[in-house]
Design goal:
With about 80 residues, this protein is of the alpha+beta class. The chain has two domains: about 1-30; about 35-80, no CATH class. It has three helices and three strands, in the order ββαβαα. The protein has a three-stranded antiparallel beta sheet. The termini are far apart. The relative contact order is 0.12.
């Protein structure tokens, strides 16, 4: 399996070397398996934080301070 990422299109697993080479000509970048999955985890975490910020805004009528950690936002949402 050949792991590739693209700025606009996300992630792709190429099956053959020729497929990977063709993708590279179109802007895809070949990366290690660790980098491929690390980037995916980061996107999941960002989605969780975005959801927390939206819930915080609904509850308090304003966005959380940009330096608030995820744990602090979660604690504020749990408090009545």
């Amino acid at each position: 399996m050949i792991y590739q990422v693209h700025e606009k299109h996300g992630h792709h697993m190429a099956i053959t070397k020729s497929e990977a080479d063709a993708n590279e000509k179109r802007g895809w970048r070949t990366v290690s398996e660790a980098e491929f999955y690390k980037r995916e985890e980061k996107n999941v975490i960002e989605a969780i934080v975005d959801d927390l910020e939206e819930r915080y805004e609904k509850k308090y009528g304003k966005r959380p301070h940009h330096k608030m950690k995820r744990e602090t936002i979660e604690a504020a949402l749990k408090d009545g």
